């Protein structure tokens, strides 16, 4: 008996659960309408995916999140099937999880630093975030956060994009009275005029904003601060104790090429505003929109992808939509997922190609884009290899619609009418990064107006930082 | 909701509205405009503010039925309201003392001209106003402009009232009579502003035109109102609407105005069909 050799069964390596794919509508179906492309996790998929989280004590994901969501905490609740609890956990630091779950670049933030990513694909944190937030809303389980007793202090929030929404939410919870000033006829900023319905349904944005209204924010639409009313008037005449400026970067950049003012050439801001805010793709809405048969979108960021995919949907099956980009595939700044979805939907990538002028017809309509081929040279300041024109490679591309998506810069309504607010040479506001304090007493700023065009979540992060500083400032008054 | 408190037909297809918009009324200056969205499904339409009453909190707008959206706007009645009124937008007119100023208004552009004439007169200028229309019936603001101008000259294309001909021809006449002119302000159809710019160009008389560009937001976001001014591209909504008429590429503006003609016509046809269905 003693001789009997005990053999241990070979230790079986636990089967690794693969990252769960999110169901997505078929490209040839979805590129004909504006309904959402991605369908979101089912509860079953969410439960499986949540089990992939190691619950590691160091949780680098939390540090990777601009608003420090307790990611292991909410994923743990998902794994226990407490989806509503998970949503509430996220909302401790992020009012807009169903927005962020859709549009955040998780692959550069939380998911990039996920420990699981060292051996496998990272935990699908964004998809889980989206799932629990949608679940909570669809179950009608959204609860209002607790609000501190009224402080009697009044804050003006200028702009209702991601930064303004976040600041408002935090300040309302702290018991201050908040008035939101929005220049357009709808709240939400870039979430309503910029990001298309098929990527971020407007009903979801509206539901998230509803929370702020329920918390008692006063809403003033059609108020362009700097024109309708100045910052000084808000502080000196209207009795506001502090002002937060989150007016974003709204001014579209153009190429400054010959022929750029021809008919048929617009900024991505114009094209997307017609589609998203003005709902030009819906028959009952009267804002016109025009897409020809050969569309060229200049630029390769997320906005360029949004414009290209929207053009495809407006233009129909026989419209050819191309991205024209001077660098190579690896350098396209849009999220990998957006590039993938765009290609699936039939968007053509015309890379290492740079437009040099636009050619028009007798009636001033664009008919062609003259381009030059590029090759990659030495790295430039951004670390990306610099594109260099290939001599003699000029060629014309038939084009009847051009959408320019090169980025945006801040507008000047406030800086021009508030001389004691210091700005950079790019027109962005100079603030203390730790607090969002501007050079003017009682005035704070955050989001694209400070950083230049960036992301939804970075604007929300800046909003949180400013809210803490505003709370401190108001307490000292 | 921005309530309509007064509505008055000035001429066939030209209507004047007084609209409650207290914030705009108290901050607007001559030369500025508003963007109006009549109802949920409407497009946003830029319209110049003709006058305002800060005490009553109202602004006055003059709207000419031209396409689908203006036809819809004009159908609104006292007691109704426009869903959105944003303003005041654009840069105000520089109200300095120039000396002698000739203001040339054509058609409904006269509505835009009126507050500028009034302001220039208040700033101490000698103001000669040329008020032009296609015919007598379409002439607007004769009495109002007369009250704020040192001299008012009426022109009609068909000669049914005042001088027969165009504002630019009358302006040429003033120049030929050796009238010393320090500034010309031209507001009206793009063709007319272009003609005025050509009249004053050889004499190097500083000339301003107020452009009526296509725009969506009116706040610098869309860039739909791009205009070539000399070597530069400007946005009519934030850099304008007034520009040096000798530098503006008017032909480009004329082409831009026609870009959505087909879509506008479709909307009009749909509206007419719907109205006929309702009648039947």
What is the residue-mean pLDDT of chain A, rounded to a whole number? 93
How many helical elements of chain A?
A: 17
Q: If strands are numbered along the chain, what order do they take across the biggest sheet of chain A?
A: 3-2-1-4-16
CATH H-level superfamily of the largest domain in chain A: FAD/NAD(P)-binding domain
Q: How would you describe this structure in keywords?
A:
heterodimer; A: 477 residues; alpha/beta; Fumarate Reductase Iron-sulfur Protein, Chain B, domain 2; FAD/NAD(P)-binding domain; five-stranded parallel β-sheet; B: 280 residues; Elongation Factor Tu (Ef-tu), domain 3; Rossmann fold; 2 domains; seven-stranded mixed β-sheet; 31% helix; globular
Report on the architecture of this protein.
- The complex is a heterodimer of chains A (477) and B (280).
- By secondary structure, chain A is α/β, with parallel strands linked by helices.
- Chain A contains 17 helices and 16 strands.
- A 5-stranded parallel sheet of chain A has the order 3-2-1-4-16.
- In chain A, helix 4 runs antiparallel to helix 5, helix 5 crosses helix 7 (125-138) and helix 12 crosses helix 13 (302-315).
- With 280 residues, chain B is of the alpha/beta class.
- Chain B folds into 2 domains: 2-89, Translation factors (Elongation Factor Tu (Ef-tu), domain 3), CATH 2.40.30; 100-256, Rossmann fold.
- In chain B, the strands form 3 sheets. A 7-stranded antiparallel sheet of chain B has the order 6-1-2-5-4-3-7, with helices on both faces. Chain B has a 7-stranded mixed sheet with strand order 11-10-9-8-12-13-16, sandwiched between helices. In chain B, strands 14-15 form a two-stranded antiparallel sheet.
- In chain B, helix 5 runs parallel beside helix 6 (190-200) and helix 6 runs antiparallel to helix 8.
- The mean pLDDT of chain B is 91.
